[in-house]
Amino acid sequence: xxxxxCAGALLAALAALSGLPSSATAADWxxxxxxxxxxxxxxxxxxxxxxxxxxxxAQVTTADDGRPVEVLATIELESVSTGDEExxxxxxxxxxxxTTLYPRSMFRTDLIDARGDGYRAIADLSLRDxxxxxxxxxxxxxxLENDARARLTGxxxxxxxxxxxxxxxxxxxxxxxxxxxxxxxxxLERRAGS
Length: 194
Hints:
Elements: H1 3-18, E1 27-31, E2 37-44, E3 47-53, E4 56-62, E5 68-76, E6 80-81, H2 85-91, E7 104-115, E8 118-127, E9 130-141, E10 149-159, E11 179-190
Antiparallel strand pairs: 1-4, 1-11, 2-3, 2-11, 3-6, 4-5, 5-7, 7-8, 8-9, 9-10, 10-11
């Protein structure tokens, strides 16, 4: 082995031991708030309504070949908005999100597989005092030639009662349905230095 090959092998070994990518093309991407959205759809007395979270952070880590290998998000639950002031006050109260004790929700992918033109992730979602695995289907679009931003769009179907969202009488699904559809549309910029 010539000296150049030895040096390359040594650098790769050090990168593996330190947990750092061995190629400069691996990167972290962070969400840009002004062009990102996190919304959900649920039913109240059979009528569908939309809500959204105004404040959240998201990060995507990509591998050397540009594919996403990890997605992380932190959601500020108090920032929820459903277009109805009374409902907004109710959903952050003790029977629902209980933001006094649980101000944030955490999302982290455990496994990401390519599926057709997109990806399917098994992720851990923490909400209130519970953590559950969920399925998250998403598309990842790296930046175009003249664009510095990447984009992630995705969707997941949840059951609110599995996370304890809706205590006491609010467990009755005739008033508020159990199924919740979550949609994500996030634009991201490469983190400085990655």
